[in-house]
């Protein structure tokens, strides 16, 4: 794993790693992930696109960063990353965001934080989609803090061995453990029950992004539908859309080489055209 550092910001502690020299490229991870998800991609990028400083950030509520009990909105992440940028004294930087991290990256661009040169969005969340409402409500009992839930799951696990359902029950238990350790996931299940709760989506703001932007989508993504990526590409004036045929939401792993090549070419193009 890449060596992690920590900085105390005004309110919360941020965990991040940094490699190389040059203008920072800040990587923002997806939901339930952390900055280590970028390790392999960054190693690939460093080989084909030297001269940058690669930075992976654990967003607020994830990984080694602070995990306060908040009603998480994307603007909390904007403030969190903006404080890190200020604390590090980065006068210029790029942002690469995947899924939830893409939402955060686009929100940072909407705020027009000084020094941001370009944006890469990989299967970005953050476009309002009322079809998501209720999709994960069945997981809400896994948030209950009562020990009776754990006792009940232990009993079910024993019975599951008899009926060859052990793997499914293990998955439920692991999901409970993950949710209990993930305050952002808990907030999303607890605080976003109705369409009108989606008060921090970006479809009405993305036209404000005045930056070169690369949007990368998977044609078979079942988590972030293609039309979400198309909405970003159509709404951001200087955006370009690349659709990876056959790719699902795991495209950062399954299409790593292609994504690294696209990012390297994009960064080179921005440097040529914008200095």
Describe the fold and architecture.
The chain is an alpha/beta fold. The protein contains nine helices and eight strands. Helix content is 40%, strand content 17%. An eight-stranded mixed β-sheet has the order 1-2-4-3-5-6-7-8, sandwiched between helices. The longest helix is centred in the last third of the chain and has 19 residues, at 256-274. The model has no long low-confidence stretch (mean pLDDT 87).
- Please summarize the sheet with the most strands: 8 strands, mixed
What is the helix tally?
9
Rough outline: globular
Portion in beta strands: 15-25%
**Total strand count, please?**
8
Structural class, from helix and strand content?
A: alpha/beta
The helix content is 25-40%
Radius of gyration: 19 Å
């Amino acid at each position: 794993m890449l060596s992690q550092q920590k900085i105390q910001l005004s309110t919360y502690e941020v965990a991040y790693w940094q490699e190389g020299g040059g203008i920072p490229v800040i990587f923002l991870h997806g939901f339930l992930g952390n900055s280590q998800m970028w390790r392999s991609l960054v190693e690939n990028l460093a080989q084909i696109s030297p001269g940058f400083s690669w930075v992976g950030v654990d967003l607020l509520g994830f990984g080694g960063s602070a995990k306060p009990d908040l009603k998480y909105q994307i603007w909390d992440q904007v403030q969190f990353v903006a404080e890190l940028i200020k604390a590090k004294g980065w006068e210029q930087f790029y942002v690469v965001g995947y899924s939830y991290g893409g939402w955060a990256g686009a929100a940072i661009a909407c705020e027009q934080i000084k020094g941001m040169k370009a944006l890469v969005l990989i299967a970005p969340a953050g476009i309002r989609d009322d079809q998501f409402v209720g999709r994960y409500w069945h997981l809400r009992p896994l948030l209950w803090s009562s020990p009776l839930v754990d006792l009940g799951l232990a009993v079910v696990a024993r019975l599951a061995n008899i009926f060859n359902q052990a793997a499914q029950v293990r998955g439920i238990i692991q999901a409970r453990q993950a949710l209990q350790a993930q305050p952002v996931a808990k907030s999303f299940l607890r605080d976003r029950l109705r369409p009108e709760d989606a008060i921090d989506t970006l479809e009405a703001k993305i036209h404000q992004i005045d930056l070169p932007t690369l949007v990368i989508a998977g044609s078979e993504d079942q988590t972030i539908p293609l039309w979400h990526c198309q909405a970003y590409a159509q709404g951001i004036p200087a955006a370009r859309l690349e659709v990876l045929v056959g790719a699902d939401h795991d495209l950062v792993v399954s299409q790593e080489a292609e994504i690294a090549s696209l990012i390297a070419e994009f960064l080179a193009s921005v440097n040529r055209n914008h200095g």
